[in-house]
Specification:
Layout lengths: L1 E3 L16 H16 L3 H11 L8 E3 L2 E2 L5 H11 L7 E6 L2 E6 L6 E2 L1 H10 L6 H14 L1 E3 L3 E2 L2 H15 L7 E5 L2 E5 L4 E3 L2 H12 L7 E6 L2 E3 L5 H14 L3 E5 L2 E5 L1 H6 L1 E6 L2 E6 L1 H15 L8 E3 L5 E4 L5 E4 L1 H16 L13 E4 L5 H7 L4 E9 L10 H10 L3 E2 L4 E3 H5 L10 E6 L2 E8 L4 H14 L2 E2 L21 E3 L2 E3 L2 E3 L6 E8 L2 E8 L5 E4 L3 E6 L2 E7 L7 E5 L4 E11 L5 E11 L3 E7 L2
Parallel strand pairs: 2-7, 4-12, 35-39
Antiparallel strand pairs: 1-12, 2-3, 4-5, 6-8, 9-10, 11-13, 14-15, 16-17, 18-19, 20-21, 22-32, 23-31, 24-30, 25-26, 27-30, 28-29, 31-32, 33-37, 34-37, 36-39, 37-38
Helix pairs in contact: 3-4, 6-7, 8-11, 10-11, 13-15
Length: about 600
C-alpha cells in the first residue's frame, strides 16, 4: 500500500502564561486558606462544591479554554472549535477502481465526549491530598487535554466491502475440449482479490490521528489470483492431445486393422491428474471401439467332420482348424498405453499395437476325429412321420432346423441345446409361419417356426435311447398321436421365456448327429464309439384318463355346405415313463421318470351355413 498524507499545521499548545495579578491574589488567598485551616478536607470539599458540574479553572482542550464551563456549554465550544475533523474526504484507489468517501459518511469528527470526560477528570482523581495538589497545579500552571477524533469503523469497513465487490474477480481456469475436427481451447483468466478488512484496519490508524489531512489519498494493489489451469497448461495439453490423435494400427502377422484418427480423438478428454492438467484417454470408449473391431478379427474354429461312405459308415474325416477371439480387455489396455505414451512424447505416433488374441480350439480336432472314426457306430435312431400342412410351414419348420443340426458334433462333456444349435428363427434362414398351441387352442399360421417340435421330439427320442444325460424337456399341452406317449419334447420362445431341449455327452467320445429330412418324414441318428450302455424304457403309466371327442358347429366363416376341422380331439391323461441307463457292467448310470400332463381337447369341425 502507498499512502499520501497532506501535512497541516497542528495548533500549538499554549505556553505557560503568567498568572494575572488578581488571579495570583485569589490563588494566594485560597492556598493560604487551605494551609491555614486545620480542616483541609473541609476546605477541599467547599472548593469542589463551588465548581460542581463544571470544569476546574485552568483546563484547556488543545487551544480551547474550557475553564469553569458546564458540560453542555463546553461541548458546544469543542464542536465548533474542532469541526474541521469531520470536514474532508478519503480518496481510495484499488487497482483501476477509484472511490471517494466523505469523512461524514464514516462518522468522522471530534470525539467531544472523550475530550469532555478527560477535561472533567482533571483535579478530581485520587486521594484528598492528591486532589489538593492537582487543583493547585491546575490553578497555578493550567492543564491541557489532547484533542481527540472519532469515526465509525464498521461503516468504514462496509464502504471498503462495496469497493471489494467491484474489484474482486474469481480466476477462470483454462480448458481444452474435444470437438469435431480438433480441440477447442478456452483461455485462462487471472482473478483479483482486495483484502478490504486489512485495508480498513490500516487506514483506521491514520483516521484516528487528529493530524490526518482534509484529503487523505491512499492506493492499494489488489492481490492477483492465478487460475489452477493456466494458459501454459492448456497449450501443453492441446499439444499432447494433438500428438495422441493419430491412427491406431493393429498388426497380427500379415493382417492389419486400423482405428482412424477421428476415432482416437473421440477417446480423449481433459482433466487434472495428480495436480497436472492434460489429456486423458477414456478407457471405456476405447473398449467399445475394440469390441466393435472384434467382429472383424474373431474367427470361429472349424471342427473336423466325419465322412460317410455308401454303407452309411464313417470312412474319413475333414481337417479341423483353430479359431481366434480378440481379448478386448487386454487389447484395450495396450491401446490406452500407446496413446498415453504418444501424449508424453515418449513414443512415435507410427508405433503399432499387437492385438491380444485368444486361440479357440475346435470341439472336434482332426486328431480326435481320426482316432474315433474307425470305431464310430450308430447308437440309436428315431423317425417321425407327419402330415405336411400350414401348421408346420409345409414341412419347412421341421426340415430347416433339422438340417442346421445335421453334422453337429457334441464333444465329450459338452451340453447340447436345441435352440442354440438351430440358431436365430428368421424367414431369411428358411423358417416359415406355422401353427402353435396358444391359450389352450391350436392356432394356424401366426407363429414363425411353428411345428418344429416334430424335429425336437424326434431328436429327444434318439438321444434318450442312446443313453446320454438328459437336461431340459417338457411335454406338449395336449397329446399328439404321432409322438411316443409321455416322450414328446416341445420347444418354443415366448417373449423373454424359452423352453429348450438339452442333453449332455457324458462319455469320453465325440457324438455325431445325422439328420435325414424330407416332406412328411424326419429321422435323427446319433453316432459315437459304443460304450456298452443299455437303455430301457417302461411302458407308460396312465392315470386320470378322460377321453376327448369331436363336435360339429355351424359357421358362416366358411362357404355354405363345406366342412373344416379347426381343432382335433385329444385324450386328457397323466403319463409317467421311466428311463434306466446302465453301463457295460450293469451299473445304473441314469434313471429318471418323465411326467407328462396332457389336457383333454374337444375336436371342432365347422359346417358352413348361409
Amino acid at each position: 500500500m502507498t499512502t499520501t498524507t497532506e501535512t497541516i499545521a497542528t495548533p500549538a499548545l499554549p505556553a505557560r502564561r503568567r498568572v494575572p495579578r488578581v488571579r495570583s491574589v485569589v490563588a494566594a488567598f485560597v492556598v493560604g486558606a487551605i494551609l491555614a485551616t486545620t480542616a483541609g478536607a473541609v476546605s477541599l470539599a467547599a472548593y469542589s462544591q463551588m465548581h460542581a458540574g463544571k470544569i476546574l479553572p485552568g483546563v484547556h482542550v488543545g487551544t480551547v479554554d474550557v475553564s469553569g464551563l458546564d458540560r453542555a456549554v463546553a461541548a458546544d465550544r469543542l464542536n465548533a472549535a474542532f469541526a474541521s475533523y469531520g470536514q474532508g474526504k478519503l480518496v481510495l484507489s484499488v487497482g483501476t477502481t477509484s472511490e471517494q468517501i466523505a469523512y461524514s459518511d464514516i462518522g468522522r469528527g471530534p470525539d467531544v465526549n472523550a475530550m469532555l470526560d478527560a477535561a472533567f477528570a482533571v483535579g478530581r482523581g485520587g486521594s484528598a491530598a492528591d486532589q489538593t495538589v492537582a487543583m493547585l497545579r491546575t490553578l497555578t500552571n493550567g492543564e491541557v487535554v489532547e484533542p481527540r477524533v472519532t469515526f465509525d469503523r464498521d461503516r468504514l469497513s462496509q464502504k471498503f466491502a462495496v469497493i471489494a465487490a467491484r474489484v474482486d474477480r474469481d480466476p477462470v481456469d483454462g480448458e481444452v475440449r474435444t470437438v469435431s475436427g480438433g480441440f477447442n481451447v478456452t483461455q485462462a483468466v487471472e482473478g483479483t482479490y482486495f483484502d478490504y478488512q486489512a485495508a480498513s484496519d490500516q487506514l483506521a490508524a491514520q483516521l484516528s490521528q487528529t493530524s490526518a489531512p482534509a484529503e487523505l489519498r491512499v492506493s492499494f494493489e489488489p492481490t492477483v489470483l492465478h487460475p489452477t489451469i493456466t494458459a501454459d497448461a492448456t497449450a501443453e495439453a492441446q499439444a499432447a492431445a494433438a500428438r495422441m490423435t493419430k491412427p491406431i494400427l493393429l498388426e497380427a502377422g500379415d493382417e492389419q486393422w486400423t482405428l482412424p484418427a477421428t476415432t482416437v480423438r473421440s477417446w480423449i478428454d481433459f482433466g487434472l491428474v495428480n495436480g497436472t492438467y492434460g489429456p486423458q484417454v477414456d478407457a471405456a470408449a476405447v473398449k467399445k471401439a475394440v469390441a466393435k473391431l472384434a467382429a472383424t478379427i474373431d474367427r470361429s474354429p472349424v471342427n473336423a467332420k466325419f465322412l460317410f461312405g455308401k454303407s452309411n459308415r464313417v470312412v474319413g474325416v475333414t481337417q479341423s482348424s483353430n479359431g481366434r477371439a480378440l481379448d478386448v480387455a487386454a487389447t484395450t489396455a495396450r491401446i490406452v498405453a500407446v496413446v498415453n505414451a504418444r501424449g508424453s512424447a515418449g513414443l512415435s505416433p507410427t508405433e503399432s499395437v499387437v492385438p491380444a488374441l485368444v486361440t479357440k480350439v475346435p470341439r472336434l480336432t482332426t486328431e480326435v476325429a481320426r482316432k474315433s472314426a474307425p470305431l464310430m457306430r450308430p447308437l440309436a435312431s428315431w423317425t417321425t412321420y407327419y402330415e405336411v400342412g400350414s401348421h408346420n410351414g409345409f414341412s419347412a419348420n421341421i426340415t430347416v432346423p433339422s438340417m442346421y443340426i445335421n453334422g453337429t458334433v457334441v464333444a465329450p462333456g459338452e451340453w447340447f441345446s436345441y435352440l442354440q444349435a438351430i440358431g436365430p428363427i428368421t424367414t431369411a434362414r428358411g423358417f416359415k409361419f406355422g401353427g402353435a398351441i396358444i391359450n389352450g387352442r391350436s392356432v394356424e399360421g401366426t407363429t414363425l417356426g411353428g411345428g418344429m417340435c416334430s424335429s425336437s421330439t424326434t431328436l429327444f427320442n434318439a438321444v434318450a435311447r442312446s443313453g446320454f444325460q438328459i437336461g431340459a424337456r417338457r411335454n406338449h399341452y395336449y397329446y399328439i398321436a404321432r409322438y411316443p406317449l409321455g416322450l414328446d419334447a416341445t420347444v418354443f420362445i415366448d417373449g423373454g421365456y424359452a423352453q429348450d431341449m438339452t442333453w449332455r455327452n457324458d462319455t469320453q467320445y465325440p457324438v455325431l448327429i445325422r439328420a435325414i429330412a424330407r416332406p412328411g418324414m424326419i429321422r435323427f441318428t446319433l453316432y459315437s464309439v459304443p460304450t456298452g450302455r443299455t437303455v430301457s424304457l417302461t411302458r407308460p403309466t396312465v392315470k386320470n384318463y378322460i377321453g376327448g371327442y369331436t363336435v360339429t358347429r355351424d359357421s358362416t366363416s366358411i362357404p355354405a355346405g363345406t366342412y373344416k376341422q379347426v381343432e382335433y380331439a385329444a385324450n386328457g391323461q397323466d403319463v409317467w415313463v421311466t428311463r434306466t441307463v446302465r453301463d457295460r457292467s450293469g451299473r445304473v448310470i441314469h434313471q429318471e421318470t418323465y411326467y407328462s400332463h396332457y389336457t383333454r381337447m374337444i375336436g371342432i369341425i365347422l359346417h358352413g351355413v348361409a
